Amino acid sequence: MRILDPNQSYTFSKIFELRIRPDDLANEFGYNFTRKHLQLPQYQLELEHLNYLKNQLKAVLPYVDLVNETSRREVLISQVVLQLVGYTKAQLRIEYSIKVNEQLQGYLDYLLRSPTELLVIEAKREDLDYGFTQLVAEM
Q1: What is the extent of the structural domain holding 103?
Q2: Alpha-carbon distance 87 to 43, whole Å?
Q3: Is residue 74 situated within a structural domain?
Q4: Which residues pair with 111 in a beta bridge?
Q5: Number of domains in the chain
Q6: Pairwise CA distance, residues 7 & 46, whole Å
Q7: Contacts of 99 (CB under 8 A, 6+ apart)
Q8: According to the model, what pLDDT value does residue 67 have?
Q9: What gap in Å lies between CA 138 and CA 134, rounded to an integer?
Q10: Strand partners, 107
Q11: What is the mean pLDDT of each run of 10 residues along the chain (139 residues)?
Q12: Is residue 118 a part of any domain in this protein?
């Protein structure tokens, strides 16, 4: 049984609002969804700006209201992403528009692209469980 109506248009945020389980959505598009621990490559050099970033966030967090996605994205996530770009020299796209088909379209909060790797970052609301559904659609 199909989860998405093939005659209807969906955006990534609309798919999030439908509260579909991530594994069900992956299956809808012919993929599998697996939760597992990953051993990702580690950056071997010193992260020179990490302490500065930590101290900056500690200093401002008591004064910042983080109740919505935009405030979390602007105050927390963007700072980390900019540091990541500085270390990796990856190309950064913000609010990147993409349309695969009528069921897969919308904006990616952050897209980092290098010649060999791709990273999609989505600033989620409170609901991380169904946030993974939106990430499945974006991937």
Answers
A1: 12-33+47-138
A2: 9
A3: yes
A4: 93, 120
A5: 1
A6: 51
A7: 105
A8: 86
A9: 6
A10: 97
A11: 90 87 90 90 84 93 90 90 90 92 88 84 61 62
A12: yes
